[in-house]
Design goal:
Distance between the termini: 63 Å
Number of strands: 6
Largest sheet: 2 strands, antiparallel
Strand content: 15-25%
Structural class: alpha+beta
Amino acid sequence: MAAIKKVMEDLDFSGLIAFIWLTQGRKPKLQQLYEELEHCGQRLMHYKEYFEIMGKDRNSYSKTDLEATFMRMKEDHMLNGQLKPTYNVQIAVENYFIVHCYVSNVCTDYNTLIPVPPKHKEAFGEVLEEVTVDSGYCSEKNLLYLKENKIDSYIKLQDHRKKYK
């Protein structure tokens, strides 16, 4: 907005435009446009700050916990199904034991499968041989990753009920 003020000063509009800063009276059209442009610039700077906080992977964040993402939770005792700031927790289980845990702020499950096998290899020194997950993890990206890394997958397809009824 400083650039607009500088242009107005350079062009010496002082004799042509008299800004009205009082609450009474009608403002000139140029002043109305200037104030609207200044307001839009301020909003744009706020939006830029919000997008920097969210990053590329999220579409929301909590003002009290900047790393949490708003997700729709299951029905509570009030049956209102609210959006709440939360994290997505994934666990890897083998023979009824939790062998790995992964916490993210990504809403959907299908974006949380790929980070788990490298972390498992880093922790235990061995590559996963098999992965069994529900249909929430079924995506082309996940299936290609598992195929490229030679990991057998048992993933229920998302349209399983439609095909086999």
